[in-house]
Design brief:
The radius of gyration is 20 Å and the shape is globular. With 402 residues, the chain is an all-beta fold. Residues 1-17 have low confidence and may be disordered. It has one helix and 32 strands. The longest helix has 4 residues, at 177-180. The two termini are 23 Å apart. Strands 1, 2, 3, 4, 30, 31 and 32 form a seven-stranded antiparallel β-sheet that branches. Strands 9, 10, 11, 12 and 13 form a five-stranded antiparallel β-sheet that branches. Pfam families: BNR_2. It comes from Rhodocytophaga aerolata. This is Sialidase family protein. It is an enzyme of class 3 (hydrolase). InterPro entries: Sialidase (IPR011040), Sialidase_sf (IPR036278).
């Protein structure tokens, strides 16, 4: 395997052998040292892009990314961006993200913690831009005027018209942030690469759970997030825009979990789509605790009965769909090893007929926040952060599904 062209202090390692079950085969693990918070996307030509935070200390961390033209088997040059120094992953739910406009312009969005005496958790989301394939970058600028309020837990995607859309959580000017929550906002780029047309999607949104922005085959824009409903429940909501983000539907609860917690659990939802419609995955401790899935065949107007796929010790689920309609869910799950708490990675596949298979990757050390994407008719690529006595590293692997 061709190694990543990393900075001099990076080292590409191989961790033992792969893993195989009845229908799932996981390749040997590769790692990127002194790195964490992986995120997966595609460039304007459909190639796999992996980005991460390079460096052990958050105040020194910089965003780096690399592109694979063969579904993750090999990666090209790693581009590290000094203008992103101080990039934060916000409890693992707010990883930096790379997005490509249709014309190849690259946007890198990242949060920087900027605590004040009045608000320890405040910060801002910044963007740097490259119009020459990553050779040069602009200075970083806030995506919009912050007004001194906390902002983060964002997502970014290329839109159907070739521009970039972003959603984020913005804190309110109140000390009662636990019950009031944050505002969920949307903005899009223009031809001058500026974010404009700020729209409020929903108020009273859980402050520290990641959001998800998704564009479907019909050019619709979907957003899911953890909302604080009128009865105090922190359940998952879905909103939809049919006019490229100018207006969004009222937020609808995808399942009445009735999870009431006086704080933010730092566990956001994910979604994807197949020929059968929209699919959602999330964690809750309302009712039967654990990771759940549901789907919608009518663009989010109604939802199927929720299905439970894990116990209450699992968290941080991520979802992707394969061309044949199979869904793949990954998550991290708390376990105990030799009397010490740790986490391991779970993977479940769900065929279009509902058949499920679940595997757990062989235990190494503490592993968290997996991400996954489809790279072919029967293949996946996944990555996650591993923590051990040597620090943090990113582990990535290919998955073949029969």
């Amino acid at each position: 395997m061709k190694p990543l062209a990393l900075l001099s202090f990076l080292l590409l390692l191989t961790l033992g052998s792969g893993f195989r079950s009845t229908n799932i085969e996981v390749s040997d693990a590769q790692t990127i040292t002194q790195a964490h918070a992986p995120y997966l996307s595609t460039d304007h030509q459909g190639n796999l892009v992996m980005n991460w935070v390079q460096g052990e200390k958050e105040e020194e961390g910089m965003v780096a990314f690399s592109i694979s033209k063969d579904g993750g088997q090999t990666f090209g040059q790693t581009i590290t961006i000094p203008a992103t120094k101080g990039a934060s992953d916000a409890h693992g739910e707010g990883a930096p993200k790379v997005a490509f406009k249709k014309d190849g312009t690259i946007f890198v969005l990242f949060r920087v913690d900027e605590p004040t005496d009045e608000n320890f958790y405040t910060g801002d989301v910044y963007a740097v831009i490259s119009t020459d394939g990553g050779k040069t970058w602009t200075n970083r600028k806030p995506i919009l005027k912050s007004n001194g309020r906390s902002r983060g837990f964002f997502d970014v995607k290329a839109l159907a018209d070739g521009e970039i859309g972003v959603v984020w959580l913005e804190g309110k000017a109140t000390t009662d942030t636990v019950s009031v929550g944050s505002s969920l906002k949307f903005a899009r780029t223009n031809k001058q690469n500026q974010f404009t047309k700020e729209t409020i999607i929903s108020e009273s949104v859980c402050q520290c759970c990641k959001t998800k922005l998704y564009t479907d085959q019909s050019k619709g824009i979907h957003v899911i997030f953890r909302k604080i409903f009128d009865d105090g429940s922190r359940d998952i909501a879905h909103a939809f825009s049919a006019d490229n983000g100018q207006h969004f539907s009222a937020a609808r609860n995808i399942n009445p979990d009735k999870w009431k917690i006086n704080g933010c659990p730092h566990v956001g939802p994910d979604m994807t789509a197949t020929a059968k419609g929209l699919h959602f995955v999330w964690f809750t401790m309302g009712g039967k605790g654990g990771i759940h899935t549901t789907s919608s065949a009518d663009n989010g107007r109604t939802f199927s009965a929720a299905s439970t796929i894990s116990g209450p010790k699992a968290s941080h689920p991520q979802l992707t769909g394969l061309p044949d309609g199979t869904l793949a869910v990954v998550w991290d799950e708390s376990v105990e090893k030799e009397g010490k708490p740790m986490k391991k990675i779970g993977l479940q596949t769900i065929t279009s007929t509902g058949k499920k298979e679940t595997i757990y990757l062989p235990e190494q050390t503490h592993v968290v926040h997996p991400v996954v994407t489809s790279t072919g008719d029967h293949t996946l690529f996944m990555a996650y952060t591993q923590k051990d006595e040597l620090g943090k590293k990113i582990v990535y692997q290919q998955v073949a599904i029969k």
